[in-house]
């Protein structure tokens, strides 16, 4: 069966089907096919439970590969809504699973940096993220001997949506104390500590998040954005113009059918979001504008 599947895939057959009862070794056969073809692989499952099981099995089959898990990070999600008859806006409510959010970031980081990825996902993977080129362009590269001031590197991290903290460090935040800059990427279990002196960067260390014991020492580090929805300044400005154009169209539509209140509310909400995007680069419900 494994040889037949490999032969079909190598001959560019679009659909290959492997049938088998529970416990017949379908997952093992799939792992053998992945190993023989040696290409990045996406495995989709119809629910989180089965996806987690497949992820654990694949991680066992490929201990040296980048085996990652990408599913919806919402434990609870209620979309925003507007009730025109009561002029009532109901804000979005959600609860994000921090661990799954970390695994999603780790997946994206692996996809843009490693050729040996095996990604196990639910249908969450069909929703668009930024192109890989945009994600790579938004990285900050730091290496031993780099001539850069701590405040300049801190400014670059804030540009990647990291939050500056003067107390405890959490995922997605950074902290500068004298000549020591700590940053905790959302995709990692352990933060980075970057030390400086007059010659620039002298040490890059992976530390325990509680005791700050040094776990590893690096020659360089690639720090990815805190948010998935990062883009270039040019594309950002084009997106804002596109949002405004669509907004004008929706306002005109509502007014043409006599829905003045709806026109006012959508203008009010969207103008506020545009202002937040221009000022801080982010807004609540930013995913509503992902098509732009």
Explain the overall architecture.
The two termini are 45 Å apart. It is globular, with a radius of gyration of 23 Å. The model has no long low-confidence stretch (mean pLDDT 88). It folds into three domains: 2-126, 3-Layer(aba) Sandwich (Rossmann fold), CATH 3.40.50; 138-223, Penicillin-binding protein 1b domain (Penicillin-binding protein 1b fold); 233-289. The chain has a six-stranded mixed β-sheet, with helices on one face. It is of the alpha+beta class. It is 38% helix and 23% strand.
Q: Mind summarizing the main beta sheet?
A: 6 strands, mixed
The level of helicity is: 25-40%
**Mean pLDDT figure:** 88
- What fraction of the residues are assigned to beta strands by DSSP? 15-25%
What's the multimeric state? single chain
Based on the structure given, which CATH architecture of the largest domain is correct?
3-Layer(aba) Sandwich
Number of helices: 8
- Which word captures the global form? globular
Pick out the low-confidence regions: none
Number of strands: 15
Number of domains as seen in the coordinates: 3
Q: Rounded to an integer, what's the Rg over CA atoms?
A: 23 Å
Question: What top-tier CATH class of the largest domain fits best?
Answer: Alpha Beta
Task: Give, in order, the helices and strands.
Answer: HHEHEEEEEHEHEHEEEEEEEHH
């Amino acid at each position: 069966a494994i040889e037949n599947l490999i032969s079909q895939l190598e001959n560019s057959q679009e659909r290959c089907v492997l049938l088998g009862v529970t416990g017949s070794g379908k997952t093992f056969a799939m792992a053998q096919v992945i190993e023989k073809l040696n290409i990045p692989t996406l495995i989709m499952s119809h629910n989180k439970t089965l996806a987690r099981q497949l992820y654990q099995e694949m991680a066992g089959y490929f201990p040296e590969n980048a085996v990652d898990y990408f599913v919806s990070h919402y434990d609870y999600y209620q979309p925003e809504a507007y009730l025109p008859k009561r002029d009532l806006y109901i804000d979005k409510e959600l609860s994000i699973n921090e661990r799954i959010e970390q695994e999603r970031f780790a997946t994206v980081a692996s996809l843009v940096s490693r050729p040996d990825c095996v990604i196990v996902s639910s249908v969450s993977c069909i929703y668009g993220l930024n192109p890989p080129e945009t994600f790579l362009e938004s990285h900050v590269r730091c290496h031993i001997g780099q001539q850069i001031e701590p405040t300049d590197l801190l400014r670059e991290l804030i540009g990647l949506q990291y939050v500056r903290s003067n107390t405890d460090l959490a995922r997605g935040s950074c902290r500068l104390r004298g000549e020591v800059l700590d940053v905790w990427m959302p995709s990692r279990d352990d933060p980075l500590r970057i030390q400086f002196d007059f010659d620039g960067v002298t040490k890059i260390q992976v530390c325990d998040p509680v005791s700050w014991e040094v776990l590893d020492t690096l020659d360089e580090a690639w720090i990815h954005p805190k948010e998935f929805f990062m883009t270039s300044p040019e594309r950002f400005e084009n997106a804002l113009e596109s949002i405004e154009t669509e907004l004008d169209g929706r306002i005109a539509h509502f007014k043409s059918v006599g829905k003045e209140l709806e026109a006012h509310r959508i203008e009010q909400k969207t103008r506020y979001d545009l202002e937040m995007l221009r000022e801080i680069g982010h807004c609540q419900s930013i995913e509503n504008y992902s098509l732009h």
